[in-house]
Design a protein that fits this description.
Strand content: under 5%
Low-confidence stretches: 1-10, 196-201, 374-401
Number of strands: 0
Number of helices: 18
Length: 401
């Protein structure tokens, strides 16, 4: 057991910030396989096999991480309204910008998007609709943001409830949450259709959607993140380092390729990912060495939300611009993949700098709160006030969406 029990919100977790980009990169690599860039079908198939399940792991990591860091950065005396304002400022402006960009790209390429599809996507309620055009038809990755909105709505209720669990029972609670996640595929079997996806998409989608995108199902990962944060905070973390936790996560990733799709989505990898998130946080608390605290890693982690929002558009329309359906030799395809990754990072940097950061800075607080803060921070002399991160930017701009 660790002897330290740090106060939640009292420690930065830079390693988790840096790891965010790794999770987003896994989603990118998984989605890239759908572009079929390799001319050699055997190589293309092998690439798809290697990255199979990468996107599932990346999203699950984000959901667990979200619960963990929001619990860790919870502020004494914070109000529900202020919390929701900070979360809305963090995700909505960038998401709306990405959805509108996707709509523009679809319009330019003569792919009509009806209002009854566009509006739910803009409002981030499309995740609740088990209909493929609505759920995935504009900017597919935003389905997870619909889940996050649901998580944020319930977080002010969930945290006080979970804090009532006696510290000695927190590990039991974590095991029960993992067991509930493992049971979801069995519940999905009660829905119509087959468990395979794809194909046939039309027949299998209700079962797939229930495990993959139904917010009440995915909130279990968020709850697991909260419980793991409470375990670390209570001083009951077991001595599992980042290395062993990462190896467990890697083993789970390999195991994905040998399991049914409904178990692949979450159940197989969720426990190792939860251990990895907690181990990385403990590494920061105890100031151990970490490869994810460098300046580049931190910037990529901070921009990972924007990267997640934009990467699918770059992959789809970047490939289209280079030649719809075109393939390349193995070295050429790798080069194109690296090029599209670089473009995704560059566009994400613009979205992060021009939309996300200003939104967090200026929308996270009410006008009255901003004026009060400026008054407190203004120097005695008449010099210009220093640039100070807005509330939510210091403790939450480095947290997952």
């Amino acid at each position: 057991m660790t002897a330290t029990a740090p106060v939640a919100g009292g420690s930065r977790l830079p390693t988790l910030t840096g790891m965010r980009f790794i999770a987003a990169l896994m989603v990118f690599l998984g989605h890239a396989s759908a572009q079929h860039l390799f001319a050699d079908p055997d190589i293309d198939s092998k690439y798809a096999r290697i990255v199979e399940g990468a996107g599932y792991v990346g999203v699950s990591f984000f959901f667990i991480l979200s619960g963990f860091v929001l619990t860790w950065s919870a502020r004494p005396g914070d109000t529900v309204t202020k919390f929701w304002r900070r979360r809305a400022a963090k995700i909505y402006p960038s998401t709306v910008a990405a959805v509108l960009l996707a709509w523009l790209c679809l319009s330019i390429t003569d792919q009509a998007v009806e209002a009854d599809v566009l509006v739910p996507n803009l409002l981030l309620v499309h995740t609740w609709v088990p209909d493929i055009p609505t759920f995935l038809g504009v900017n597919a990755p935003t389905w997870s943001l619909g889940c996050e909105v649901f998580f944020y709505a319930l977080f002010p209720l969930l945290l006080p409830l979970l804090r009532r669990i006696p510290a000695r029972h927190l590990w039991t609670a974590a095991v029960l949450v993992v067991a509930a996640i493992a049971a979801l595929p069995l519940v999905a079997q009660l829905l119509p259709g087959t468990p395979m996806f794809p194909p046939p998409v039309s027949e299998s989608f209700p079962r797939f959607w229930f495990v993959y995108g139904f917010p009440p199902a995915r909130i279990l990962e968020f709850v697991l993140g909260i419980v793991m944060a409470l375990i670390v905070h209570s001083g009951r973390w077991v001595r599992i380092g980042m290395g062993p936790a990462a190896l467990l996560a890697l083993a789970a990733f390999v195991a994905l390729k040998y399991t049914s799709i409904l178990y692949t989505i979450v159940a197989v990898s969720v426990a190792p990912l939860a251990l990895l998130v907690a181990a990385a946080a403990v590494a920061d608390i105890e100031e151990r060495r970490s490869p994810f605290r460098g300046r580049v890693a931190l910037w990529l982690g901070e921009a990972s939300f924007a990267f997640y929002l934009i990467h699918q558009l770059v992959l789809t329309y970047g490939h289209r611009a280079l030649g719809l359906g075109r393939t390349w030799s193995t070295p050429g395809a790798i080069g194109i993949l690296v090029f599209l990754l670089a473009v995704s990072v560059a566009v994400a940097g613009v979205l992060y700098t021009a939309v996300e950061r200003p939104s967090v800075r200026y929308l996270a607080r009410s006008r009255k709160d901003r004026a009060s803060r400026e008054t407190r921070l203004r120097p005695v002399a008449a010099a210009p006030a220093p640039v100070v991160p807005a509330p939510g930017e210091e403790s939450e701009v480095r947290t997952p969406h």
